[in-house]
Amino acid sequence: MAVGALILAFALASAAFGQRLSFGVVDREAITLPSWPLPAVAVRGDLYFLDYDQHALYRVSKPGAGVERIRLGPAPADEMAGLQVDRDLGVDAQGRFYVLATHRGAARLLVFGPEGAYDRTISFTPLAIVRRVVIDDEGSIFAIGSRRMRAGPRGPCFLIHKYDAAGRRVTSFSECPPPEPGRTETSQLWVGGGRVYHLLPEARELRVFDGSGDLVSSIHFARPPAQELLARHGFIDSSYAQLRVWNALLLPDGCFLVDWFHAGVRYLCLHGANGAPLSGPTETLQQLGAPVFVDRDGYCCFLRRLSDAQLELLRTRVRASASSNAPATPIAGSAGQ
Q1: Pairing relationship of beta strands 106-112 and 118-123 according to DSSP bridges
Q2: What pLDDT does residue 121 have?
Q3: Class of residue 266 by CB neighbours under 10 A (exposed 0-12, middle 13-18, buried 19+)
Q4: Is the whole model's pTM more than 0.70, yes or no?
Q5: Distances (CA, A) of 179 to 17, 175, 222
Q6: Between these two residues, 151 and 224, which has the higher pLDDT value?
Q7: Under DSSP, is residue 32 helix (H, G, I), strand (E, B) or coil?
Q8: Are 265 and 223 contacting, i.e. CB atoms less than 8 angstroms apart?
C-alpha cells in the first residue's frame, strides 16, 4: 500500500569514510503467495514469483497495483514429456516469458506470450547445462552454462553463453573460477543499457561486457570497514576469508549498493563505480529486508518475509551525506524527491 511520503528512515555513519547512508521508505506493498517458498526473480524493473506446478506466474509491478497472477498455458504433452521445470525466468522487451527447464540434463526454454499463452520451446545448440538466463533488448539470450555436458574432475566449468533467438550458440565468454570444494557455482547475470553484467560472489568481482561479449570493465569490490560491526556479532577474524558479495545493485548515479555476506552476517555498503567503499556498513535485514532490485523509477526495492506465505516489498530512496548535519545527496529514488 502506497504511503506517499517518507515514513521511515535508517541512517548509519562511518567514522572511517565519513559517509552517512539513509534509506527512506516511500511505499510498502504486501505480497501474499499461495505457497512458500517461491524464489523471487527481478527482471526489467518488476518482481516475479514462478509457481510452475500450478502453471502460475506472479508479478509485482506498479506501486499499489497489488500482485498480478498470470496463468501460463499448458505446453504440448510431447514437449513436456520428461521435462523438469526449474525456477528461473527471463523476460524479453516484448513481455514474453522464458522459463528454464531441463530434459535429461540439457537445458531448454519454454516461451510464453505476455498473457501467458504457450508459444514455443527453445532447445540450445549445442547441448548445455544452464542455470540462469536473461534476454537483452535485441532478443539475444545470455545464459550461465557449462562448457560441455560432461563435468570435469572439479565439476562443470561455467561461463556465459550468448545464443540467438533460436537457441544457437553465438559465442562464449567470462569463465567462472572453479567453486570451492563442496560449493556450487553461484555467479549472477543480468543485462541493461546494452551491457552484460556478470557478478562473481567469492571473487568479489563484477565483470561488464558489451553485447558481443567483449570486456568493457572489471570492478573489484574492496572489502568494507566492517570490523566493528562483525565484532558485535562475536566475529573477530579479520582475514576476510569468508567474505563474499551476495548481491550488487547498480544505482542511477552509477554507484553500487553491495549486499555483503561475511561469516553468517549480512550488511550493506555503498561503493563507487571503481569498487571502492564510500560508506560504512549497515544491517537492514530486520528492518527492511534484503535489497533485490532497482525499479523503473530508480527506487531501491527491499523484500522482507513476514510469514510463511506473506512478504513485503519496500521501495526506498537512498541518500548519502558527508555528516549528520550536511545535506543529503540523492543516490536512488525518483529524482531524489
Answers
A1: antiparallel
A2: 94
A3: middle
A4: yes
A5: 33, 12, 20
A6: 224
A7: strand
A8: no
